[in-house]
Write a structure and sequence with these properties.
Length: 102
C-alpha cells in the first residue's frame, strides 16, 4: 500500500469546522472508502503556524514540509497539517495537507 500527497483548502468558522468541511468535500468527491488518498483518511489536524498566506504560498510551504519529511505531517498515519490562508469570504480558511494511504 502506498501513500500520496494531498492539498485541500477549506473555509470554516474555526480550524475544527474547516477540517470537517474538507473531509466532507473529500468524501463527496472520492467516496467514503478507506485509503482514498485524501484528507478524508485523517482523524486529526495540527496547525503548523499562524501567519496567513496566499493559497499558492501555503501550497509551496506544504510541499517543502512534505519533501523535508517534517515529522509533524510526514507519516501517512499521522495528522493532517494546516496552514491559514487568505480568503475572499467572511470565514477564515486553511490549507490542509499531508500524506494519505492509497
Amino acid at each position: 500500500m502506498g501513500a500520496t500527497d494531498f492539498f485541500e483548502p477549506a473555509n470554516g468558522r474555526n480550524l475544527s469546522r474547516a477540517f470537517f468541511n474538507a473531509k466532507c468535500k473529500a468524501a463527496w468527491e472520492h467516496g467514503h472508502r478507506e485509503y482514498s488518498g485524501t484528507v478524508y483518511d485523517k482523524d486529526d489536524v495540527i496547525l503548523i503556524d499562524e501567519p496567513q498566506r496566499s493559497l499558492p504560498e501555503a501550497t509551496r510551504l506544504a510541499k517543502e514540509l512534505l519533501d523535508a519529511r517534517d515529522p509533524r505531517v510526514f507519516p501517512k498515519v499521522g495528522p493532517a497539517g494546516a496552514l491559514p490562508i487568505e480568503t475572499d469570504g467572511n470565514q477564515p480558511g486553511w490549507l490542509f495537507f499531508g500524506l494519505a494511504a492509497c
